[in-house]
Amino acid sequence: PFHAGERILILGEGDFSWARALSALLGAAGDGDQHIIATGLDTHEELVHKYGAAVEQNLTALRESGARCILGVDGTRVRDVPELGGLLGCCNYVVFNFPHASAGIKDEKENARLHRKLIRGVITAARPLLACTGTYRGQVLITLKSGRPYCTWGLETLANGISGVRFLGTRAFDPADYPGYIHRRTR
Q1: What is the pTM of this model?
Q2: What percentage of the chain has pLDDT greater than the value 90?
Q3: How far apart are CA 120 and CA 19, in angstroms?
């Protein structure tokens, strides 16, 4: 659904390969105007430990294309990140691919509860960042795998329970649409 020139905030990147693939698809990350802002929860050291040299290559390519890369960002607390302060009411999309609460809990009900809490926090934090002009409303896009346990997270009910948010539907995510993207499991 993305087009060049749209402001896209990406939360929770792992190895930053999806942000890099999106940047390449759009031709540039905004022609130096920083239309793509890619963030990750981990510090630089944690990223290198988890993903090795690939993350360095992805971050370098993103920065060279004009994207902003900000590390150590908790997606539920984006308003606390000074570098994101200028985004209020500016984002066409806030993207959160494959949320992971990193709790390591095997109990499916508790795992679902923690993931709902994480997703609710991200949507609530992202809402003020969304562009809103006339009839246009920015969107929060959340990518989940299908099947269990993800279907137990109740994304539609969760989104519709947040003031000012409406669940618009689902669509298939095809990694092949983003050449260079590699889905990596969180360690």
Answers
A1: 0.92
A2: 62
A3: 22
